[in-house]
Amino acid sequence: TLKALARIWPCYKGNVTFNGEDIKKFSHREFAQKLAILTQAPQSPADLTVKDLVEMGRFPHRNWFDRKSMEDDAHVEWAL
């Protein structure tokens, strides 16, 4: 299931790979940089836009206190 792919549930049988690599070998940050999942529940706040959600996908690519960069903007625009 998607939850096994996202490492939310353990994979009890076999292996889950991403680009040929076992997903268990990635650090949390590396894994977050490769895969983002937006579930359907619970619902997002009403004032949150699709662009806001896509921008959240850039968090793993920055340091904790870094501000949004022009590179982040370019990636978001490409994704949209």
From TrEMBL:
Main localization of the protein described in the UniProt heading: membrane
Q: Which BP terms in the Gene Ontology apply to this protein?
A: monoatomic ion transport
Q: Which UniProt keywords apply?
A: ATP-binding, Cell membrane, Ion transport, Membrane, Nucleotide-binding, Transport
Alphabetical list of InterPro entries matching this protein: P-loop_NTPase, Siderophore_ABC-ATPase
Signal peptide feature range: none
- Annotated localization: Cell membrane
The UniProt entry lists membrane topology as: Peripheral membrane protein
GO CC, one annotated term:
plasma membrane
GO terms for MF = ATP binding
Keyword Cell membrane tagged: yes
Q: Would you tell me the protein name for this molecule?
A: ABC transporter ATP-binding protein
Q: Record the organism.
A: Xanthomonas citri pv. citri
Q: What is the lineage of its organism?
A: Bacteria, Pseudomonadati, Pseudomonadota, Gammaproteobacteria, Lysobacterales
